[in-house]
Write a structure and sequence with these properties.
binds flavin mononucleotide, single chain, five-stranded mixed β-sheet, globular, Alpha-Beta Plaits
């Protein structure tokens, strides 16, 4: 059984260290996740993370326990938790996406995603995940999103 979790959380570090922390987290995560068949993406913007992780249910539950205890963030708010039959983010074991330094990503879609979050998920889990995918499919983003 495959499971997908999407959450947002607050970065507890200094803004100046955010890009480094994001890259360090993803470097470690890519290695760890590859061994456990976990895929996903990690966005950062303005003291907030948004992460999507997917993989075997037990592996995802175990990883979420470690993630919850990580002092680099707090106030984890689960937005999506669902069983899936196929992966949405299979290209990446953990792709960092720093929205503060990459202006490439489609702002209209990002606005929709932020609105969906701010207004307490007026859209379904599946639509929420589709929005994240739309952001990743922004033309020109290929260069940043290397497999
Ligand atoms: C926002 C955020 C996302 C993270 N995502 C992952 C991840 O996808 N995979 C991973 O192995 N560690 C991830 N980590 C790191 C884990 O929280 C933890 O530090 C790491 O798994 C080592 O855990 P351990 O000390 O229990 O071995 C993330 C940390 C943060 C703050």
């Amino acid at each position: 059984m495959l499971k997908l979790v999407v959450y947002v959380s607050e970065y507890t570090g200094n803004e100046a260290d955010a890009a480094t922390d994001l890259n360090n987290i993803c470097r470690h995560a890519s290695e760890f996740n590859a061994r456990r068949n976990i895929s996903g993406v990690l966005f950062y913007e303005n003291y907030h993370f948004l992460q999507a992780i997917e993989g075997p249910q037990l592996e995802i539950d175990g990883l979420m326990e470690s993630i919850r205890m990580d002092s680099r963030h707090r106030n984890i708010d689960i937005l999506v938790e669902m069983d899936i039959s196929s992966r949405y983010f299979s290209r990446w074991n953990m792709q960092p996406i720093n929205l503060e330094t990459s202006s490439l990503f489609e702002t209209k879609v990002l606005k929709k995603l932020r609105d969906a979050y701010m207004h307490n998920l007026q859209i379904s889990d599946a639509s929420f995940v589709m929005l994240i995918q739309d952001i990743l499919n922004t033309p020109g983003a290929e260069e940043i999103l290397k497999s």
